Amino acid sequence: MSSADTTDIVDTPQNPAETPSTLEGATHDHNHDHAHDHAGHDHAHDHAHAAPALNPECTRQVQVEVSAEEVRHEYAAVLKKYRKLAHIPGFRAGKVPEPVIRRKFADSLRQDVLEALLPAHLRKALDEQGLQPVSQPQVTSLHLVEGEPLRFQAEFEVMPALDVTGYAEVKVERPDVALTEEEFQSELARIRDSHATMETVAEDRPLADGDFAVIRFKGNVQGAETPMPIEGEDATVEVGSSNTVEAFTLALRGAKVGQQMQFEATYPQEFSEPRLAGKSVSYDVEVKSIQKKNLPELDDAFASQLGEFTTIAEFQEKLRERLANEKRRHLEAVAKEKLVAALAERFPFPVPESLVQQQVDARLDRGLRALAAQGMTTEQMRKLDFGHLRVAQRDAALNEVKGLLILDRVAELEHVALTDEEVETQLQLLSYQMREPLESLRKRLTEDGGVAKIQEQMRRDKAVNLLYERMTA
Predict the structure, then answer these.
(1) Rounded mean pLDDT of 9-22?
(2) Which of the chain's termini has less CB crowding within 10 Å, N or C?
(3) Helices (H), strands (E): how many in the chain?
(4) In what order do the strands lie in the sheet with 150-157?
(5) What is the dihedral of CA 364, 370, 371, 375, to 10 degrees?
(6) How many whole angstroms separate alpha carbon 372 and alpha carbon 278?
(7) Among 164, 170, 166, 163, which residue's Cα sits nearest to residue 470?
(8) Per-residue pLDDT tens over the stretch 210-221
């Protein structure tokens, strides 16, 4: 075992909030829409799935009938086109008898007639009834026979009536966003520590808290059905650190270079290394050397190593400003999420299942990107149970859609509008983030509807910002 592996043996587990995201945990930002694609990225799964069962409370139906005369006319037009274009051995082009065309291309003729008549008459029926589907209409019954009227029924989901009367009264606790001195000093200490150097202690003295023991060790897991020896050479252990397993600190504290010792370490059930979690290990350890950490002085020379700073005071000022902005943005974002959740709880309403499933798709998409960034391979992704994952994501997706629909309604009531400058600034930011020329990005997003999605999200952001500012005024 290399010294790099020793962290898993002597260090206590990380705070769960600091561990890498899982698929479900990696999909946190409910206000984010992928208005852009990621060329070359293989998600290793197909979002396409059977049409979701529609929410009965949001489902509407239309019955459509097209006259027999129009059906005959369309069949005649399609037949004429086929006779002109069909190439059948034994017949000259354009001279194929109609019965042969009907027999050979029966299914295609019928499909072409449907495609010519059904969408147009469906749209006409929807317009006449003032219906705006939010899901793809599903044809649930269909009668098409040449010489008879075309009859079909389509069902689909519509946006629910959304009454948010009293939305301005919904409030959540306002966070204290001020940066504390303790938070500033903690980050300053972390930065110093990241630039520290290690120095071997030459004097003959025992290990003390804060020292780093360089050790050779061998261990045997107790109670294992098969031997599980573990060993390491030149492993470094910080004595007294909160991240060090207590048994190592107790054994090493007061020890000298060259000293050998035996002790047993018991690991908690939640330990980060699975093979050691909940296990007891007998260790033989030898102290090879003692090292101490040298922290850099907080002076102008150190500041110059950290960026374009001439004095340590300038660096600390910029650091304090950055930390304050980061804390404010984070806490305000959390508060706004709570505000949207409170609005969704205050105003219950039926949600179109098609929108929920679209949000599930978006969450899975973001989760897979996060897993890919963490190193999961395409082959590993293919083994995921996407049926289970879809079910697991549904509740969160439902709540997100509720929040987004409420923000859309608030934006409408508040007459929230975007300026051309605001949209342009957002596109410039995306261009920078995606490293794509602005005009290329603009053209692509305009063609695939991405600009409209960006504008939609920007209106939502302005709506929630407006409510938050009123709440905290």
Answers:
(1) 39
(2) C
(3) 14, 8
(4) 59-66, 150-157, 138-143
(5) 160
(6) 30
(7) 170
(8) 999 999 999 999
Token pair belonging to 368:
């897979």
Q: Which amino acid is at 377?
A: T
Q: Which two tokens stand for residue 190?
A: 């972390």
Q: Are 225 and 180 in contact (CB under 8 A)?
A: no
Helix (H) / strand (E) element for 231: namely: strand 229-238
Angle CA 382–385–390, to nearest 5: 115
The structure tokens listed for 179 are: 């940066």
Specify which residues 284 forms β-bridges with: 218, 262
pTM of the model: 0.72
φ/ψ of 229, rounded to 5, equals -70, 140
Residue 98: which pLDDT band, with cuts at 50, 70 and 90? confident
| Residue 59 token pair | 């489902």
Residue type at 436 in one-letter notation: E
pLDDT in tens, 288-323: 999 999 999 999 999 999 999 999 999 999 999 999
Spatial separation of the C-alpha atoms in residues 86 and 158, rounded to whole Å: 42
**Residue 42 binned pLDDT confidence (cut-offs 50, 70, 90):** very low
Confidence bin at 473 (pLDDT 50/70/90): low
Torsion of CA 29, 34, 35, 36, to 10 degrees: 130
The DSSP bridge pattern shows strands 150-157 and 138-143 to be antiparallel
Are the C-beta atoms of residues 463 and 407 closer than 8 Å to each other?
yes
For 447, which DSSP code? H
Which amino acid does the sequence have at 217? F
Residue 142 pairs in a beta bridge with: 152
**Which amino acid is residue 185, in one-letter code?**
Q
Examine the pLDDT at 17 and tell me if it is beyond 80.
Answer: no
